[in-house]
Design goal:
This protein is of the alpha/beta class. The chain is built from 21 helices and 16 strands. The protein has helices at residues 6-33, 43-52, 60-63, 71-91, 93-103, 107-114, 119-128, 165-179, 192-204, 215-230, 270-278, 316-333, 352-357, 383-386, 408-421, 424-430, 433-450, 478-484, 505-524, 536-551, 553-558, and strands spanning 137-139, 142-144, 150-153, 208-212, 234-238, 262-265, 282-287, 336-340, 363-367, 377-381, 389-390, 393-397, 455-460, 463-468, 487-488, 497-498. Bound molecules: pyridoxal-5'-phosphate (PLP). Pyridoxal-5'-phosphate is lined by residues 158, 214-216, 219, 242-244, 288, 340, 342-343, 367, 377.
């Protein structure tokens, strides 16, 4: 070696190292800039923050005036609250008794009943205003509880109920008959599996199908396949989007460990497209088209309704345009574009989001309603993306099994679902679907406005969310007034009302009447009192102050 060149070699190596560091830094900065500025957009920070928030509850004296309302308003609220409490105990005794018993050993029920409302109010609400967790019967668009009370079903079985509960009952009955001779034999397929594959290929426009037991599992497998095929590590999800409860798609609050191979990017953002264009470790992009109703926000539950900042507005054209741009970037970069249509599939259009927004994905995940009333998750995709082994590397496989995959009863119920989907009666539901439901939302909003009630609804077809217009700490109370009027919501409360397509105009009018009556009663009881100075910001500031005071009690004592 000629040592005269040693300094030069050192400079060259140093420059190369610097260039690599700069490129990495640029990429890192690009990634940071593509995050949504909210806490939801910063999964790790959100998890850390969640571990710092201390528990505290309002006692009776504070519960009715957490916003410093004057005594007469607090008294009206107290009267309204205990009137509801009495009504619930008189009207729902059996439902409430069984709920209290079951709650003891059912952590799922403990969770949902605790997180119906913001945690500061939860203990008092649970003590006096429990909600029955049981139902006995369903018919049309109604549910009947253990005490014989009938409710309009706005919970929609978490989105499964697209076509009305009677429809699924028929699917289940047919499925029993169809596979009764084979029974619950697993491993060998019932011929109905082949029929479903054929139908799903035609419906989705793809040429391969994979059956799983839940939406969560199907998402897991779709991502695994994308990683296997591309040999890249990371998945991209958009801020706020729900894709089931598997760790990699739930990097924020709710998951005890960090998801290290997930990027959470801002929805509808040029900066996110930039990241997709430049990074080389992205295997797939997951899209939940339901986010079009509230981009970059979590599914709106009443437990986080601490003020009136919840917003929602669906812009079909803008979201469709965004999906087209995503499509282009993913095609350019060899990134697998996955539509997670577990929620919206078959609901917004028969051909789902692909048809509705006019954009083709590389894989589509269905679930919920497609099972015809039974649990399921399905991936439809391009054959080359769905293959679980390589011809040239026999040991390099992408393993995915599942004892109950392609269960005969599920497959037969799915077959019934897909068969009836083509019937004239069901087809009629999809004619002018958006027009019908947008008109219904607009009609309800008109009535709310005429009655000078501080709320309105926003909708993506039959999926609705309630938004509040006067800054308030008590909007979550509406779910109890709605219950009293015979409207059944899921545990997430007014964040998500889900209608089935078989709601007639008369059914809907009855719901609207009850909705307005519930909101009017809530207003009369003073829950929406505002001193004219309270804003959403001031409410948040106040809650933050309370939180800090409970986290650092000594600090408070020293003041
Ligand atoms: C878009 C989306 N993906 C995945 C899932 C998970 O499906 P499952 O609850 O069947 O596991 C859900 C459930 O709500 C969902 O809405």
């Amino acid at each position: 070696m000629d040592w005269r060149f040693a300094p030069l070699a050192g400079y060259v190596l140093g420059a190369a190292a610097l260039a690599i560091v700069l490129v990495k830094l640029k990429s890192r900065i690009e990634l940071s800039r593509a995050k949504h500025p909210s806490l939801t957009g910063h999964a790790r920070l959100a998890r850390r923050f969640a571990t710092l928030v201390p528990a505290y509850s309002y006692d009776e004296s504070r519960f009715f005036c957490a916003d410093d309302a004057p005594a007469e308003i607090a008294a009206a609220r107290r009267e309204g609250f205990f009137r509801l409490s009495q009504l619930f105990h008189e009207r729902f005794p059996r439902s409430l008794r069984l709920t209290a018993q079951a709650r003891e050993s059912l952590p799922d029920l403990q969770f949902t009943s605790t997180y119906r409302v913001p945690f500061q109010f939860s203990r008092f609400v649970n003590q006096h205003l429990p909600i029955g967790a049981f139902m006995e019967a369903s018919s049309g668009v109604m549910l009947t509880d253990l005490d014989g009370n009938r409710f309009y079903d706005l919970a929609g079985s978490y989105g499964v109920n697209v076509l009305g509960t009677d429809f699924y009952k028929a699917c289940l009955e047919e499925s029993q008959k169809r596979v009764a001779r084979l029974g619950p034999v697993l491993g060998p397929y019932h011929p109905v599996v082949a029929a479903n594959v054929k139908r799903l290929c035609a419906l989705s426009g793809f040429d391969a199908v994979s059956f799983h037991m839940s939406g969560t599992e199907a998402v897991m497998q779709a991502v695994r396949l994308a990683r296997y095929l591309t040999r890249r590590s990371h998945l991209v999800r958009f801020c706020g989007a729900y894709h089931g409860w598997w760790g990699d798609v739930q990097p924020g609050v709710g998951n005890p460990v960090p998801a290290r191979e997930t990027y959470t990017l801002a929805d509808l953002s040029e900066r996110s497209l930039r990241v997709l264009r430049h990074r080389r470790d992205i295997a797939c992009v997951l899209v939940n088209p339901l986010q079009a109703l509230h981009p970059n926000a979590n599914a709106p539950g009443d437990s986080t309704l601490i003020d009136s900042a919840r917003g929602a507005r669906f812009d079909r054209a803008a979201y469709g345009e965004w999906l087209k741009r995503l499509r282009t970037v993913c095609s350019e970069r060899g990134i697998v574009l996955i539509f997670d249509e577990v929620f919206v599939g078959f609901r917004i259009a028969r051909g789902g989001a692909q048809e509705y927004f006019g954009v083709e994905a590389d894989m589509v995940i269905y679930g919920k309603t497609l099972g015809g009333g039974l649990p399921v998750g399905v991936i439809c995709g391009r054959k080359d993306l769905m293959r679980r082994f390589r011809d040239d590397r026999p040991l390099d496989i992408c393993f995915a099994r599942g004892t109950f995959n392609s269960h005969p009863y599920v497959m037969a119920a799915m077959d019934a679902f897909l068969t009836h989907l083509e019937s004239p009666a069901i087809s009629a539901f999809y004619d002018g679907l958006d027009k019908t439901w947008n008109a219904r939302a607009a009609a309800l909003n008109r009535r709310l406005e005429e009655a000078r009630l501080p709320l309105h609804v926003a909708n993506l077809s039959t999926i609705w969310t309630v938004c509040y217009t006067t800054p308030s700490r008590y909007n979550w109370m509406l779910q109890y007034y709605l219950r009293a009027e015979g409207l059944a919501l899921s545990w997430v409360g007014t964040g998500r009302l889900i209608f089935s397509l078989n709601y007639t105009q008369a059914d809907f009018d009855a719901v609207a009447d009850r909705f307005v009556a519930a909101a009017s009663a809530m207003q009369r009881d003073g829950w929406w009192w505002n001193d004219g100075a309270t804003t959403n910001q001031s409410i948040r500031r106040r809650v933050l102050q309370e939180t800090i005071a409970h986290r650092f009690p000594l600090l408070q004592a020293r003041r």
